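Here is one chain, start to finish.
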Amino acid sequence: MIDLHTHTDCSDGTDSPAQLVNKALAEGFSVLAITDHDTTSGWHTAEQALRPNLSLALGAEISCLTTDGISVHMLGLLFDGTNAEMQEMLENTRDGRIPRALKMIELLNAGGIKISMADVESVKPIGATLGRPHIADALVKNGVVASRDEAFTDLLHNESPYYVAHLAPTPEDAISMIRRAGGVAVIAHAFASLRGKVLSADDFLPLKNAGLNGIEVNHRDHNNEERNALAQIARELDLVITGASDYHGTGKLNSLGENLTEQAQWERLESEANQRRVIRA
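Its structure:
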């Protein structure tokens, strides 16, 4: 089993990197990608927990914005984690999350919803990349909503009056950076219309020209029609087709391995990195 999109408590998941690796080992996975938001801080701990029979494809999920303001998430896998340019881009994107959170808190307060940055910090694991899920957790703690899912459905979705975008690279810039760092780029949940405005089919050729390697087709936020459309785009542009859980522990309903990547597709994707960077025990 191959799952190429998961999160730990280094961003907005609830499992530590070691806990996630142990869960993947117990469930018989062959390849696990750890792709925390805009950070590689969980890589070392994950490697230390690794045991035989499981391989790690380390990466990050990079928050991007198109020039017309569409939020896009780009999975960077198998890149050189010591690449200074890559780490600078990730750091800049993380830094942009703080003023965004403060502005969202301000809007929530103006709407009569009591929450503070101290509330958010109290539920965010130390060192974790700040994100909307942590605002959601603070809303749960304050009794505003019952769960993260309810927070996103009612208050924090992309079309909400409380939503604020943050400074981020364009998808093309993120792809180019991933490739310069020796990795491969896979666009995540690109047609997840429930999250807000999404790309059109015509937007994928420029991404391919920028160096895009694959499309995450099989994801719980894609219905069958969206999966079929993305698979067709991938075939037309000769891109790798992936599937993944987008696992967040108890932070989301997503179950580890609920969508998977086929072995042949994974082997092709791995071969397109500039070095073999899969980690094995």
